[in-house]
Amino acid sequence: MSADIYVWPEPIRIGEVGRFTPEAPLRRRLAADEAARTRIAKALDLLSLDGLEAELALSAWFDGLQIDGVWRAAITQTCGVTLEAFSTDLNGSFRVRLVPPGSAHAVIETDEEIVIDLEVDDPPDVLEGDLVDLGGYVIEHLALEVDPFPRKPDAVFEPPLPTAEISPFAALRDWKPGGES
Q1: pLDDT(151) > 80
Q2: Count of H-run helices and E-run strands, the chain
Q3: Residue 146's closest CA among 38, 44, 68?
Q4: How far is residue 154 from each of residues 74, 84, 138, 149, 157, measured CA to CA in Å?
Q5: Buried b (16+ CB within 10 A) or exposed e, 56-71
Q6: Least crowded by CB within 10 Å, which of 90, 97, 162, 170?
Q7: Cα separation, 76 vs 179, whole angstroms
Q8: Where are the alpha helices (DSSP H) in the chain?
Q9: Residue 116: is its pLDDT beyond 50?
C-alpha cells in the first residue's frame, strides 16, 4: 500500500483531541463504504473486502495524541493451494501514539544499536503536520493480519503422481542410432 494514496481518508487534527483523556476519550466509529472497501481490497491485493469497521478512542498524549482501536473485517482471498476464493473474518486491536514534528517526545535517531523489547510500547509516530488519517491506521493494522499465503481451511496439497521416469536420459532410452526402430 502506498503511503501517498489515501484509500480510506478519515482525517482529524491533533488540536481536536487535546481536551480528551484516556478516561473520557473522543470516540469515533468508522465503517468503510463500498467504494472505500474496493480501494482497500485493491491496495491489499484481496479479492474483496466485504466489511470493515472500527471503534476508536482518541485522547491527548503529551503534545500529541493516542489512538486505541478495535477493528473487524470480512475479507475474501484466493487459496494458494486450490485457487478457490474463500472468506475469512479478521479482527484486532491496537494502540498508536502520535506526536507533531519537532516534539520533545519523538524518538531521537542515533547510530547506536537498536534493542527491541517486545514488552515495551512502540515509540510514537512523528506526523508530518497536524493532520492524522485514522482510516490509514486501521488499514495498516488490517494489513498486518492478512495472511500473505492464504490457504482455505480444508485445502490439502497433493503432489501429482509421476507418469513417467523423471530423468534427463529417459528420452534417450527409446532412441536408436540411425533411425532404426
Answers
A1: yes
A2: 2, 7
A3: 44
A4: 19, 11, 29, 15, 10
A5: bbbbbbeebbbbbbeb
A6: 162
A7: 57
A8: 34-43, 134-145
A9: yes
Band the pLDDT of 2: cuts 50, 70, 90.
Answer: very low
Say whether 52 sits in a helix, a strand or coil. Answer: strand
Written as nine digits, the cell of 106 is 519523538
Most confident of 20-29, 146-155, 171-180: 20-29
Q: Where are the domains of the chain?
A: 11-179
Which helix H or strand E contains 49, and what residues bound it? strand 48-61
Location of C-alpha cell 491533533: 14
pLDDT digits (tens, 9 = 90+) for 51-67: 999 999 999 999 999 99
3-state class (DSSP) for residue 125: strand
